[in-house]
Structure formats: structure tokens, C-alpha cells
Amino acid sequence: MTKLYLFVRRYLAVVLMFATLVGFAQERSVSGKVKSSDDGSGIPGVNILEKGTTNGTVTDADGSFTISVGANATLVFSFVGYATQEVAVGSQTSLDVSLKSDITSLSEVVVVGYGTQDKKEITSSVVALSPKDFNQGNVNDPTQLLQGKVAGLSIYNRGGDPNASAVIRLRGISTIGANVQPLVVIDGVLGASLDNVDPSDIESINVLKDGSAAAIYGSRGSSGVILVTTKRGSSKGGGLSVTYNGYVAAAEVLTRVPVMSASQFIAAGGNNLGGNTDWQKEVTRTGITQVHNLGISGGNQNTTFRLSTNIREVQGILKKQGFDQINARANLTHSALNDKLKIDVNMSFTNRNSNFSFSEALRYASVYNPTAPKRFANGEFFQAILFDNFNPVAILEQNINEGKRRNLNYNAKIDYSITNDLTFTVNYGQQYENQLNGEYYSRNSLFRGLNRGGLARRYTSDRSATLFEAYATYTKQFGKIDLSANAGYSYQQDNFEDIFISLGNFPSDLLGYNALEQSGDLLSGITGANNINIQSSASPTNKIIAQFARVSLTYDKAIFFNASVRNEGSTRFGANNRYGLFPAFGLGVDLNRYLQIKKIDNLKLRVGYGVTGSIPTDAGLSQGLYLYNNQLGGSIGPDRAANANLRWEEKRETNFGLDFSIGGKFTGSVDVYSRDIKDFIQRVPAVFAEVGANFQFRNAGSLNTTGFEFNLNYDALQFGQVRWTPGLVLSSYKSTLESFVGAPVQVRSNFGAPGQNSTPVIRVGVGEEIGQIWGPVFAGANPDGTVRFADLNGDGTILAEPGSALLANGDYRKLGSGIPTMEIGWRNQLSYKNWDLNVFFRSAFGHSLVNSFRGFYEPLDAGAINSYNRVITSKAVAGLTEAKFSSLYVEKADFFKLDNATLGYTVKRSNPNGTFKNIRLYASVQNAFVITSYTGVDPEPVLQDPGAFDNGGFAPPVAEQDVLSPGIDRRNSFFTPRTFTFGLTFGL
Q1: CA distances for 185 relative to 206, 224, 928, angstroms
Q2: Dihedral angle over CA of 82, 84, 88, 89, nearest 10
Q3: If we measure between CA atoms, which residue out of 684, 674, 703, 700 comes closest to residue 768?
Q4: Cα–Cα distance between 1 and 717 in angstroms, integer?
Q5: What one-character DSSP code corresponds to residue 16?
Q6: Lowest-confidence range among 172-176, 307-311, 758-762, 886-890?
Q7: Which helix (H) or strand (E) holds 396?
Q8: Which end of the chain is more exposed for a tag (fewer CB within 10 A), N or C?
Q9: Given this model, what pLDDT does residue 809 score?
Q10: CB-based contacts of 91, cutoff 8 Å, min separation 6
């Protein structure tokens, strides 16, 4: 028996060894390429799986693959948008597979408020963008990813100030008294800051454009909603995945203010001080930026994670300007209880040190005497005491303007599936932001410092926000009806406090703004607006409490209905109007499901209606305010009266849309909308006898905006091995003021100093379009060099002095519009073998700009030329010596620019088991060229006006800028850079 056992064991061992050897002998490598049956192009990212095993791979950039398989293997090829195909390998070692398009499998999931929807079921105007759609190159702000990509979304960061935030408008002006920027939601956290998310960490951005989509966010949805989803970990393939993206960029000045050289200045009669200085060159540089992004992700079937670190060292084209930033982000997803429980945890931290420098140096570099030397013979800066005229190099070298900012965000979201149809979700998050800025102006600086014996300014603020939301989601299919519904509760609170100190009269510049206690103003007890200035504030705990619900119904996979309602209250409003109701509905029909038009895959007609609101940026506007005056022993008096009836601003919007897809290649959409906005929150004059103060915040005014948007894409045109995917977006809108506070017609936005402080250039009138540039028409120069205006009404009298009386005068008229009539974005994605090229053009038409530099410094005034350099353009009028605003300085600013061009090369992966999953080298150029007739620095629209500030004055905060006065290109505009970028990405 023992011998028999040993024989059998040895026999089985031999058989097993033989079988193993046969198996290894039969296992072999199979290579090939997966192509599209439509155009024969290679398809990257196709999943290839050996049937019945876990052995698999994916195709590379041109559709090629290599996989080792066993005997009698069958390979399964699958990819979104194509029919899955099985191929028996047999004895083949080379395999080419052609996949057929399957439009019915294209079920793109789009993030919407409190959930997701299949794109085909959406009845509102929503745009979804993924990394392949984003702008490329030197991108330091998430909003730059979207610029020109979404019809109706205007994003302008005029010039190249890396520390400035972009001005964002969605479908025009949504308010004049509240927050004009869209609501940002990051990973489900409402009101999150884009300052705390690095562009490299963004997986997708969805824009909710119309009222029916944004109404679920209630009193914060009027300006639109931007939903950001960050990248997450993946368990595919197991193990760790490492990605790196790094680049170096060089930015140079694209366009400068055209001014006289030293020799031209002298020939024109300018005061010769013996030097020859190109001041614009002296204050600018080639700004070098380097960015490094490292991401690590991994996990298993239950837990995935992603960690990332982003380092940015950014230099602007203005000397001493830029920032150093480090950002870290962690995302963790865990599933338990047989996938019934899902936990998402997100955390992000940003530390940023900025040198704001002084953009005013660019203004004064454009007009400072070109014959002036930078310094005297003794080494001190050349400075002359003249109005609104400072040595620009001294501004940068003598003074300090810097700051620090720290952001911390975290949130945890828990989903629990009570049944297969019912899920309960809880989301909790907190945000913190701390800011500390410091300015110091030297005792020797004419710019803000000399008359103060030095000037120090410190500002610090703390902001925090807490969010708690809980909601349930129910999904069920009833025959031909698919139902999805959710309802929930939202609670959010925020707190803010800050302090500002301004002191002068310092014994030394040595310690700068860190020696406030040495201020002579403080030690001597001198007070007043021009000496000691200390301000502090703390908001009450602002709360927003809401209940919301939404239902989505789909019938027969072709008829779609969506409805939502949000009941929301805010402590920022009056006691009598804390709560508002924000309903919305949408209806869509896929007409082609019933018409069955050949080659038409989708023809969806939709209509949506929604009510949204806006809340004020500041707290306590419904409450009374008293001011204390410490002069003459001190007194206290009312500044504004309380208003218990102050309520939210309201926007009612109707949107009609058509989505279409032809042959799975040609897709697009058309949207037409009308929005009515009313009850602006404004500070208005009040009758003291009635309310106990001369001012009060009230709801007053209304406007209407109508517009259309068009989006067209083709995927893709094939020319041999060249694949071209073009796309076009265009939009147009018009805003009309329906009612307003005060006189029905008003002029505003004075041109500025010197000499034109009382010259308004914008007209605002009830029943008229917003954005009217207003003034007299230039008719030529008189023999004495003064301006001659046109007698438009032919009455023989020309009123040349500005003022409100001129509103009814026939000699003044609309000179242009500050708002474009059309904005266009044109993208082009091309690929050839391992090469890819992305070219993006952007343009705007129909808008004008007031060229302030020309309006002050172009006329050859014999007296003024001794104080300021002169602007020289082809539009200058010979013999004109008087600087006075007119149509002469209002220019059409249409432009067409190559916004971004990126050329990349992907290194082909020769070994599927190699260390590197992918390697890509790329180079890009931003602002490659601009075609325009505008003679100023930047033809892009100016959508809001900071006002005229000069002679070293301080610019107002962005929140206080006038949104009813677009179109004025002030002398503080930043120079536009052209940027070249060289980068590397790879994955491990």
C-alpha cells in the first residue's frame, strides 16, 4: 500500500509538472491595435480582458496593446461609446480589432445639485467639462481652466497680475447690490473657496447656468453655480499609482503703452533732464514660474485614496510681484457593509506668501519723464514733487506690499443605502481662512510716504464657515417610468472678523511695518483721517437654514421632467423677510425617439423655469448703524436706519434649449433665455423724520437680461493619421434697466484727474441698455488747440461742460457699449501618432473701451508735457493740445486672439510591464497674438469700474466696484503677458 501511494504521488507530480510546462508553452504574447469603425483611428484607453480571468490591459495613446494570454483565450474589448466585442485569439499573435459606435451606451453622468443625472435626462442648461476640455499651459487659478470654454460664462483677468482674481459673469449682470460672482461648490461643500484647490487636482467642473438648475441652491444661485469635483483614488490594477506634472514658464510683456522716447519727448518740447530711461522696461521683467504637482493614489475594492502636493513659485512681469504657494490635498473613500455604507473624506490646506508689489508703477512708468535719470549722482532716487507723478522704480524699491494667506477645508460625506432604492446622505464640512497683509512706505518715498514720515498699514482677517446637510435619495423604476427624488435639510453658518491699522511718522525704515509701536502718530496721540486710522469689525454669526426637495421623472426614455423647491432663511435679512421660496421646473422631450429621423441620434427640446436669489456680501444691513466721532469731545449719531423688511434679491429665469447629436459625431446645443431680476439691495437716501437716519438699505430696482448661447462640436475629422476635433461656443446677451433708485436717467463714473474729475462717462437710464459710454462727439481741434465738439442737434449751441443737465442735451450721445455683443471660443484638438496639438482661439465683438491714457496724455499740451510723457497713437489729432473727454477716446475693442496653443508628445510604452505607464512632454504659448484695432494695452472687456483714484490714492475693494459702469480702461490696467511653458507629465 505504501509503494502504491508513493507511485501515485510521483505520477501525479509528473502529470502536474507536464501540464504546467504545457501551459507555459501555450501562453504567448498577443499584440495589436484597436480602431474605430467610423474613421479607422486608434482608440486609446480601451479595456481588454482575457475572458474568465483577471488578466487585462488597456490600449495606449494610439490604440496599440500587448497582452500575454493562455491557450484558447478569448479577449473582451470594451470602451464607453462603443459596442463591446469578444475575439477568440486562437493561434494568432497579431490582432487588429475594429469597434463599432454605440450611441445608446453613451450615458454621461453629470454632477448637479445634490446628486447626479444622466446627461440625456437633464432639462436645464448645464455644461460639464473634464480635463480634456480645460485650458492648458501656465494655469495658476482654477477659473483659467474655464475661460472661453462655456457659452455665456465670461471670465476676464485683464493683464497678467498673478495675485488678482478674475472677474466672472454668467449671463451678464445678476445683481448690483449683492455678490456678483457665481456660487462655488467643491466636493459638495457650498461656498467653498477656489483659492484652496489647485488646478492640477480638479477632475471635472460643471456649470449650472439657468435658474431651473441653480434654484436648488436658493438665495445664492442668481449668479450661477460652479460645481467642482476633485480627483479621487482608484483601485484599478491594485497597488500604488504615482503621477507627476511639472513645468517651467516664462512670461514677457506682450503690449506696452505707446509713449514717446527721450528724443521724441525733447523734440516735442519736453523738459530735458539729461537722462534716457525706458521706464516701462525698468519696472518689468521676464517672469519665471515653476510648478510641481505630485499625486499618489491607490487602494483596494473597499478603500481608495489619493494624496497630492502642489508647489507653485510664480513671478509676474512686474518686478517684485508674485507668490510662493504650497497646497496639499487628501481624498479617502471607504465602502463597508457589503457596499451599503460609503464614506468620503476630503481635506485641503493651502499656504500662500504673496508679494503684491505695486501695479501703480506701470501707470507711472507710462507717463514719467523719459529724460529723467533713475537716481541722482549721490545714489538717491530722482524724485520731483508733481501732481500724480512718481518715479516708478522708486515706488518698487522703496516700499513693501506683501501678505500671507492660509486656507484649510475639510468635509466628510456618508452615504448609507437603506434599501436598493433608498439612500441617506450626511455631509459635514468646515472652512477656515486667515489673511495677514503688510504695507510700508518709506520716509523717503514721495509715493504715499514722504508727507507722513513713513506710512505703515497692517490688515488681518479670519473667516470660518460650517456646513451640515442631510438628505435622502429615492430611485425606482415603474414600467416605463424612472423616478429619482431627494429631500433634505441644510444648515450653514459663517463668521468673520478683521482689523486694520494705519500709522505714520516713523523714526526709521529699518523694521518697516513691524514697528507700529514706534509710530510718532501713536506716541504723540495725533488723531484724524490722515494720521491714526484703526478699524476693526466682527460679524454676527450668519446662518442660512434651508429645506429642499427635487424630483426627476423619465418616461419611455424620452420624456423628462425635473422639479425642485428650496425654502431658505438667512439672518442677513430683515426680521420680517428672513425666508424665501425658490421653485423650479424643467421639461424635455427627445423628439427623435418618435420621429425616427435617420442619422439623428438625439434631438431633445427642453424648457426650464427657476427662481433664485442673492444675498448681500456684508452682514447686518437690515440693522441700524451708529457712528462715533471722537472729535470735539466725542459724539455718536445714526448713519443708517434699520429695515425689518429687507429681503433677498430675486431672479426669475426662463430658458429654452435644444440639444442634438448627428451620427454620433456632430453634437451641439442652442439656448435662448430671459431673466428678470428685482429687489436690488441698495443704500438709498431716507427721510430722517420717518426712519431716524439719512440712509437705509432697501430693496429697489430691477433689470431684464435676454440672450442666446450656441455650442457645436465634431468628433472627429480624419485626414489620414491626423485626427481633428473642433468645437465652437458663442454667446450674446443684452441687459436693460427696468427701474432704479433716484432720477430715471443718471450719469456716473468720473474720468479723473488731472482736470477731468467732474466728467462722467457712463449713462444709466430706466428702459435703456446697461453699458452705455456717454459723452460729446469730437469734431476737431480749434486753431488755439482746444477741443471742438459736434453740434448734433443743430441748435447752434454746444454745451461743452459735463453735468446732469447734459442728459437732456442733444449734443451728447451714446459713444459705445462696454459690454460685448458676442463672445466666441474656438477649440481645436489635433492628434497624429504620438503627437497632440491643442489650439484655442478666443474673441469678443461689439464692445468699446474708453482709453484713459490717450484721454489724458495724448494731446500735446505745452504745459503738461513738462510734467508727463505723451502717448503716441495713430488716432492722435494734429494741433490738439487740450485734454478733454469725447468720442475721440472711445475705441472699438473687438479682438481675436490665439489664447492658448499646446503641443505634446507621448512616449510610446514599449513594455506593458515597465515602470512608466506614460510619459508626455509638452510646450505651450499663451496670448500668442492678438488682432485688434484698440490702441490700449488690452482689448478685453472691462466689466466693472474701480473709479478714478490718483496721486497715490488707494483702489477700492473689488466688492465696491461699480458693475453698472463697464467699458472704462483706467490708467491702472495691468500689462498683458505672453507666456511660454515647457512641461513634463508621467505616471508610475
Answers
A1: 10, 11, 33
A2: 50
A3: 703
A4: 76
A5: H
A6: 172-176
A7: helix 392-398
A8: N
A9: 62
A10: none
